[in-house]
Write a structure and sequence with these properties.
By secondary structure, the protein is of the alpha/beta class. Helix content is 36%, strand content 17%. The chain has helices at residues 34-46, 78-86, 105-119, 133-136, 150-165, 223-230, 244-258, 278-292, 295-306, 342-356, 360-368, 377-389, 407-413, 415-420, 433-437, and strands at 9-13, 51-54, 62-63, 66-67, 93-99, 123-128, 173-176, 181-184, 190-194, 199-203, 215-219, 236-239, 265-274, 332-333, 371-375, 395-399. Helix 2 (78-86) runs parallel beside helix 3, helix 6 (223-230) crosses helix 7 (244-258) and helix 9 (295-306) crosses helix 11 (360-368). The protein is globular and about 80 Å long. The N and C termini lie far apart (51 Å). 43% of the residues are buried. This is FMN-dependent oxidoreductase (Nitrilotriacetate monooxygenase family). One of its GO terms (molecular function) is oxidoreductase activity, acting on paired donors, with incorporation or reduction of molecular oxygen.
C-alpha cells in the first residue's frame, strides 16, 4: 500500500531581524509601515498558507559598542502588529515570537488569549529564551538568568500560561434564557501556580479562547531543546537543517522522542528563487545571495563565532588564520548565539571551506543560509514536495529576499502547482489555526491548581 500524501504546512515569515532581506532593492518596503505587514499577510492568505510569522528583536545589535549599520532599526511589537492583521485577514494563523525570559506568564497569556478571541482562533506563540545580558539590560530582570536555567524557566512559563488558559472551561459563560444575561461559574478563572521560577495566584480575566490554547512553536536543536520539543511542550518546532539527510535524521529523532503520531510538526525555514529556466534561476540566486550577504555582512556573521574583529580579512579571500577568542566579552551584542562551541565550529568550517574551496564570504553564505529551493516554478514545487513527502519536514516557513512583495511570486507561480498535485489545500478546512494544522482542539476541563 502506498504511503498517503502529506499535506504541506506553509508559514510565511517577514524578513527583517536577520540578513535575509535585500534592503538595497528599490521595491523593499518599510519595517514599521502597516501596509508592509498587510500586503505580506494577505498574499500568504491568498496562497492558502497556514500562518504568518513575525520574529522578535528586543535590542539594537551592536558591534564593538556601536550599532551595526547594516542591521534593522524600528521593528515594532509583534503581538500589536498581529492584532491589527486579524482585522484584515480571515483564515491565516498569526504567530508572534515572544521571549519567555523577559516576560511574565499572566501578562503574555492574557495578550495571546485576547489575540485568539479577536482573530477567531488564529493565535500562536513561538516561544524563545535568552541568557543574553546585553538584551536583558532593557528589562528589570537584566541578564541574571543563567543559560542552564533557560529551559527551566521556559517550561514553567508555558505550564503556567497553559494553566491560565485552562482556568476557564468552555461552558463557564452561559446565557440565562429567563434573565437574558450571561452567567459565569463562581470560580471561573481561578488559578494558583508555584515553581522555581514563578509563584502566582489569582483570577485570569480572559474566558477560554476559540482554540482553547494558542498554537505553540519552538526553535532549538540542542539536546535540551529537543527534549523540550518532544516532551509535550510545543505543537511545532523549527528545524535549521538544509540537506534532506540531516533533516530526515532530525525528523526521526523528534518523532521517536515524542511518541505522539504527527506531533510536534517539524518546519524548517526556507527561501526560494524562481526563474523561467533553471539557468536563469541559478544566476538570479547568485545575484540575490551576494546582495543579502555583502562582504561586510559576511565578516560580521563570522565575527559572531570568532568573537574578534575580522574586518582586516578579505571577504573574497580564505578564512581567517586566527583562532576564535573564547575569553573576551562578546564582540557582537544582540545576536542569538547559535554555535556554542566556537573552536569546534571553526574547525568544522575550515574543513567545509577547504573541501569546497570557499572564500570567507562563500562560507558565510553556506553556513548561515536557509533551505533554498532554486529553479523554475515546476522544479521548486517538485523539490519542496519531495522534501516533505520524504519526511524531511511537515512543511516550511517560507521567506523572501524582498519585503513585502517577494512572496507574491511564490503564491502566483508555485502554490498552484502544489495544489494540482494534491499536496496543498485549495480551501481552508477549518476556522482555527489548530484546525488547519491538523492539531486537536484543546477544550473543556479546568486545570487543577498546581501548588
Amino acid at each position: 500500500m502506498s504511503k498517503p500524501r502529506k499535506q504541506i504546512i506553509l508559514g510565511h515569515y517577514l524578513g527583517g531581524v536577520n540578513h535575509s532581506t535585500v534592503w538595497s532593492d528599490p521595491d523593499a518596503g518599510s519595517q514599521i509601515d502597516f501596509a508592509t505587514f498587510r500586503h505580506a499577510a494577505q498574499a500568504a492568505e491568498r496562497g492558502k498558507f497556514d500562518f504568518f510569522f513575525l520574529a522578535e528583536g528586543l535590542a539594537l545589535r551592536e558591534r564593538q559598542g556601536e550599532i551595526f549599520d547594516q542591521d534593522v532599526i524600528g521593528r515594532p511589537d509583534a503581538i500589536t502588529v498581529l492584532t491589527a492583521l486579524a482585522a484584515v485577514t480571515e483564515h491565516l494563523g498569526l504567530i508572534a515570537t515572544v521571549n519567555a525570559t523577559f516576560n511574565e506568564p499572566y501578562e503574555l497569556a492574557r495578550q495571546l488569549a485576547t489575540l485568539d478571541h479577536l482573530s477567531g482562533g488564529r493565535a500562536g506563540w513561538n516561544i524563545v529564551t535568552s541568557s543574553d545580558a546585553f538584551t536583558g539590560g532593557n528589562f528589570r530582570r537584566g541578564g541574571f538568568l543563567d543559560r542552564a536555567d533557560r529551559y527551566t524557566r521556559a517550561e514553567e512559563f508555558l505550564a503556567a500560561a497553559r494553566q491560565l488558559w485552562d482556568s476557564w472551561a468552555d461552558d463557564d459563560i452561559v446565557a440565562d434564557k429567563e434573565s437574558g444575561q450571561f452567567l459565569r461559574r463562581p470560580d471561573a478563572g481561578s488559578f494558583a501556580f508555584s515553581g522555581r521560577q514563578f509563584d502566582i495566584s489569582g483570577r485570569f480575566t480572559v474566558p477560554r479562547s476559540p482554540q482553547g490554547q494558542p498554537v505553540i512553536l519552538q526553535a532549538g536543536v540542542s539536546s535540551e531543546g529537543r527534549e523540550f520539543a518532544a516532551g509535550g511542550g510545543p505543537d511545532a518546532i523549527f528545524s535549521p537543517y538544509h540537506t534532506l539527510a540531516e533533516a530526515q535524521a532530525f525528523y526521526r529523532d523528534i518523532r521517536q522522542r515524542s511518541g505522539v503520531p504527527g506531533r510536534p510538526k517539524v518546519l524548517p525555514g526556507a527561501s526560494f528563487v524562481l526563474g523561467d529556466t533553471e539557468a536563469d534561476a541559478i544566476e538570479r540566486h547568485r545575484e540575490i545571495t551576494y546582495a543579502q550577504i555583502s562582504g561586510r555582512g559576511a565578516q560580521v556573521l563570522l565575527e559572531t563565532v570568532w568573537n574578534r574583529d575580522l574586518s582586516a580579512f578579505d571577504p573574497d579571500g580564505p578564512l581567517p588564520d586566527v583562532d576564535p577568542d573564547t575569553e573576551a566579552p562578546p564582540f557582537i551584542q544582540g545576536r542569538a548565539r547559535i554555535h556554542q562551541n566556537a573552536p569546534e565550529t571553526v574547525a568544522q568550517w575550515r574543513e567545509i571551506a577547504e573541501a569546497n574551496k570557499y572564500t570567507l564570504r562563500e562560507l558565510a553564505i553556506h553556513v548561515f543560509g536557509r533551505t533554498e529551493f532554486v529553479g523554475t516554478p515546476t522544479q521548486v514545487a517538485d523539490r519542496l514536495d519531495a522534501f516533505v513527502q520524504s519526511d524531511g519536514s511537515d512543511g516550511f516557513i517560507i521567506g523572501s529576499h524582498l519585503t513585502p512583495a517577494g512572496i507574491d511570486e511564490f503564491v502566483d507561480r508555485v502554490v498552484p502547482l502544489l495544489q494540482e498535485r494534491g499536496s496543498l489545500r485549495t480551501e481552508y478546512e477549518g476556522t482555527t489555526l489548530r484546525d488547519n494544522l491538523g492539531l486537536p482542539a484543546l477544550t473543556g476541563q479546568v486545570t487543577p491548581a498546581r501548588v
